[in-house]
Request: fold
Amino acid sequence: MFDHPELRYLTDAKGNVEAVQLSLKLWQLIEPKITAQLKATEAPAPLVQAEGPLKNFEQLQQFWDFKYPYSPTVDCPYCGAKTADWRTDPAQPFILTNANIGGLLVFLCKGCGTSVRQKHFRDHVAVEHSTPKG
Reply:
């Protein structure tokens, strides 16, 4: 351990270091570096479109026999994000997370984490959503 008057090592009963206490002077000196490092490590991994749901979506499109044409529009009722076509929107505000041949499409809103479900039935679409836990 480094011996310095601005540092204090806090140990358990066995002498194992549990924490380090810094003087205010030392903290003010290193806080910007630590804050930047913490922000860099907290950044979530970017959300990317997985191939599996896209393949399932393509299969649904192949066998589409509903009484209406497919609409690629997706809207988030929670944060207001919308796209006219989730497949081609350069901003990609929604990611397809699940699709099946029965007509279910599930999207994740990248803006707020809401799950938007489009349930395609023979003659209509039902849209449901689940807001993120907060």
Summary: Residues 24-42 form the longest helix (19 residues). The chain has two helices and eight strands. Helices lie at 24-42, 51-62.
